[in-house]
Structure to design on (115 residues):
């Protein structure tokens, strides 16, 4: 048996392996939430799935009882930003992914960034 590491990626993996993923996936709501996070993290952020678009980053912040997701992107040399506000961080991600897949994200020119 190997000695446990206190910090770093190996420790992260050790901790995450303790999560009972199969049991979590049995709950339809938890499954839908995890699918939204997986799609957002794996596809939206890390893959060029929309021709001419590059995602430049995102942030989540608490705004009173609501959560704000800000997604930054560039399209044909112009910086854009999209805002999503929901009750929870997961709600923001689900809402953004739904609008992304339906091609209904409301992009606004980002007046604070210049390319």
């Amino acid at each position: 048996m190997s000695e446990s590491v206190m910090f770093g990626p190996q420790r992260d993996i050790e901790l995450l392996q303790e999560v009972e993923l199969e049991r979590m996936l049995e709950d339809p709501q938890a499954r839908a939430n995890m699918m939204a996070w997986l799609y957002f993290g794996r596809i939206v952020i890390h893959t060029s799935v929309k021709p001419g678009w590059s995602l430049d980053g995102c942030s989540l912040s608490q705004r009173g009882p609501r959560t704000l997701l800000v997604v930054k992107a560039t399209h044909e040399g112009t910086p854009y930003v999209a805002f999503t506000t929901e009750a929870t961080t997961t709600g923001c991600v689900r809402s953004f992914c739904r609008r992304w897949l339906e091609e209904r994200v409301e992009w606004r020119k980002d007046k604070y960034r210049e390319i």
In short: Residues 9 and 106 are 36 Å apart (CA to CA). The mean pLDDT is 87.
